[in-house]
Amino acid sequence: MNFVGLILNAAAAAGQDGQTGQAGSSSIIMMVIFWAILIAGLYFLMIKPQKKQAKQQEDMQNSLEPGDSIMTTSGFYGTVLDVEEDTVIVEFGNNKNCRIPMHRKAIAEVEKAGTAVAGKEKEEESSDSDKKKKDKKEKKEKDA
Question: What is the pLDDT of residue 62?
């Protein structure tokens, strides 16, 4: 039985309960509105975020450059040596002879070459400013 048949059966059942034709048509309209809201909600809660995540993953994989640190989908960490169309040559570990060509889609995370140092510097700056704030606070408490 299809969707339209279900709606017509529901309308017929509503008409048999002694309701007028106008009440039966309003129940059909309410049912259609309910299904439209349900489908729209599912789209915005499930399908759209999944498409957004897939787009971000594709952009990340297309932005690979030699020197980037990566993590593969199987959990191996390595450094990109060369990028071709669909193949990436990755060096794993400290052994310079362990160079493996792999498909671009097998890369789960990318860390750009210069971001690790910048992140550590920002952490140090924030911890220095936190220490200064604590010192000022302690001085105020001692003065009070």
Answer: 86
| Distance between CA atoms of residues 12 and 5, nearest Å | 10
Taking alpha carbons only, the member of 80, 132, 127 closest to residue 104 is: 80
Element (H, E) at 8: helix 3-16
Interval 84-115: pLDDT, tens: 888 999 998 887 788 899 999 999 998 887 76
Q: Which residues pair with 102 in a beta bridge?
A: 88
Q: Please name the residues in contact with 62: beta carbons below 8 A apart, sequence gap of 6 or more.
A: 104
Enumerate the β-bridge partners of residue 103: 87
pLDDT in tens, 32-48: 999 999 999 999 999 99
Structure-block tokens of residue 75 = 């959990």
Place of tokens 């001085």: 139
